[in-house]
Design a protein that fits this description.
Blueprint: E1 4-5, H1 7-11, E2 14-15, E3 18-23, E4 26-29, H2 41-46, E5 50-51, H3 53-59, E6 72-77, H4 84-87, H5 109-119, H6 122-129, H7 136-146, E7 149-150, E8 165-167, E9 170-172, E10 176-178, H8 191-202, E11 205-209, H9 216-221, E12 230-233, H10 239-251, E13 256-260, H11 270-274, E14 282-283, E15 288-289, H12 299-303, H13 315-322, E16 326-332, H14 335-346, E17 359-362, E18 366-367, E19 370-373, H15 381-391, H16 393-398, E20 401-404, H17 410-418, E21 423-426, H18 428-434, H19 437-459, E22 472-473, H20 475-478, H21 489-495
Parallel strand pairs: 1-6, 3-5, 10-11, 10-21, 11-12, 12-13, 13-16, 16-17, 17-20, 18-19, 20-21
Antiparallel strand pairs: 2-3, 3-4, 4-6, 7-22, 8-9, 14-15
3-phenylpyruvic acid is lined by residues 182, 211, 266, 299-300, 303-304, 366, 370, 373.
């Protein structure tokens, strides 16, 4: 039986030499461990003599502290001693803000977002929700889907619906892949493992980010071995390090690689800069740590310095030497670059050794349009998809084009598929759902599946193979589609 320790007693151990922390209502003496804390001693001292649960859970497994030989369990926090002063000592970014509604009250991605806004830590909310400068690209991602109208066909016996599809060689129950969003543990201790388990259980895709908060090995080991993970790579300035990662993930059984090409530098995300980044937020696969500097606390800016901004089309040959699997370029934002990607494959100059068909990922998962997170006023992927449909429909037929950015409803998924996408990637909504752990992500997938099924029935189709552009009215966006291709685009189109 653990002894009860009052908040006053905990508070009296608040110095580097005598440092107690409360984690999940247990009181620990971390004085001996603090100087060796891999995330830095500063973060521990910030919570010295107080409750560090929220900050701890953002980056550590619940079990971690129990395995450390240099920490000592003192007792159990006496709940009768917890008063408002104790609870309100910090209003820091790491403190959970309020209670969230129960999961069964969540009906949509918007409900998940509202709950996340209120209950994620300020840093987690700032990191996931932020987007570049004036948020024009970010907001347009969603609003562009709203400018497309359905054209339902009726009286078509829609009693049995099939939402199954194949994406990059894998069979999924929905045309949905979870986007490679960094640092899932900021949302919940389950982190990427929780996302992976939910995806494997519901049979949708998951692209593990190189910026994950767990090493790839741990994420992959958390689900049955036949689940077909994808992996996202930012090419490292230290190419040998990227080569090592490619070998590592190949050994782990991954055969589909998404290389992000839209982020030689991350965008300016002011909301993320405004909230202090904890020293202890680290990315085990990139080896970088978030920090606060003179410009602010932006996680992407401070951890993203490893990304190689010299990367060019010529480097695809290097990539091919080190990656024999399927390759997806993530972040294409123009017909011209989509054609260059296909061209690379077709006349085999750059990607000669490719044993599998390449694919193009038109990306807008927040802001490059990368979720609107990189270049503000960059085009929503939906617009790029429309441009591909107008100028080079063969790219949509011959490669698998995936789109992301702004997908919040089953109707959005259906619109993208009608316009020629093979599948959609979903980023932020998953992180907001992960606020409820693995179960939250499962619930999100169920919500989207059911919305997609209803949308298919109401539009008059029973199988995704029947989705086609006649089922949508894109008139409101058509005038935004470029008329002429530039910079050799028309030459490429003629050649292909
Ligand atoms: C993003 O936030 O948009 C990312 O792509 C993630 C990221 C995080 C940290 C460093 C580089 C990229």
């Amino acid at each position: 039986m653990l002894r009860l320790v009052s908040t006053d007693e905990v508070a009296s151990h608040d110095s580097p030499d005598d440092c107690w922390l409360v984690i999940d209502n247990q009181v620990w003496d971390v004085s001996a461990f603090a100087p060796d804390h891999p995330g830095g001693v500063e973060i521990i001292l910030r919570y010295a003599g107080h409750d560090a649960t929220a900050a701890y859970n953002e980056v550590h497994d619940p079990a971690t502290i129990k395995t450390l030989s240099t920490t000592q369990l003192i007792g159990q926090l006496d709940p009768s001693s917890v008063n408002e002063t104790w609870k309100n000592k910090f209003s820091p970014q790491t403190q959970l803000q309020t209670q969230k509604p129960p999961l069964n009250a969540i009906l949509s991605t918007h409900d998940f977002e509202d709950a996340a806004r209120q209950s994620l830590s300020k840093k987690a909310w700032a990191f996931y929700s932020s987007a570049a400068t004036d948020l024009i690209a970010h907001n347009s991602n969603q609003s562009f889907y709203r400018r497309i109208w359905m054209r339902p066909r009726l009286l078509r016996n829609v009693s049995t619906i099939n939402t199954q599809t194949s994406v990059l060689g894998a069979s999924f129950g929905l045309p949905v892949v979870v986007a490679p969003v960094a640092l899932a543990r900021l949302a919940h201790p389950d982190g990427e493992k929780g996302i992976a388990r939910a995806c494997a259980q519901k049979m949708i895709g998951y692209c593990i980010p190189i910026t994950a908060s767990f090493p790839g090995e741990e994420i992959i080991a958390s689900v049955p071995s036949d689940y077909p993970f994808f992996f996202q790579l930012y090419v490292n300035k230290d190419r040998a390090s990227s080569e090592a990662i490619l070998r590592r993930i190949w050994k782990l059984g991954i055969r589909t690689l998404f290389v992000t090409i839209d982020s030689p530098v991350p965008g300016k995300r002011e909301a993320d800069e405004r909230v202090r980044a904890e020293q202890s937020i680290s990315m085990p696969m990139t080896g970088t740590k978030a920090s606060h500097d003179a410009k602010g606390g932006g996680i992407t800016r401070t951890t993203g310095s490893f990304i190689d901004d010299t990367l060019s089309w010529e480097d695809l040959a290097w990539l091919r030497m080190h990656w024999q699997g399927r390759l997806v370029l993530k972040g294409v934002q123009s017909v011209e670059d989509a054609l260059m990607a296909v061209e690379s494959k077709i006349d085999g100059i750059v990607l000669r050794s490719a044993p599998l068909p390449e694919s193009v990922l038109v990306s807008t998962d927040g802001a490059s349009n990368h979720g609107g997170r990189n270049l503000d006023t960059s085009p929503p992927a939906l617009l790029t998809l429309l441009e591909l449909g107008r100028h080079c429909p063969h790219v949509l037929r011959e490669t698998e084009v995936l789109v992301d950015g702004g997908i919040r409803r089953g109707t959005d998924i259906l619109k993208a598929i009608c316009l020629g996408a093979r599948a959609v990637l979903i980023g932020r909504p998953v992180m907001y759902a992960l606020n409820y752990g693995q179960e939250g992500v499962q619930h999100l997938i169920d919500v989207l599946a059911s919305e997609l099924q209803v949308a298919m029935k109401l539009v008059g189709i029973t199988d995704l193979a029947q989705a086609q552009k006649g089922l949508v009215n894109t008139h409101d966006l058509d005038h935004l589609v470029v008329r002429e291709l530039t910079e050799g685009g028309s030459v490429l189109r003629a050649k292909i």
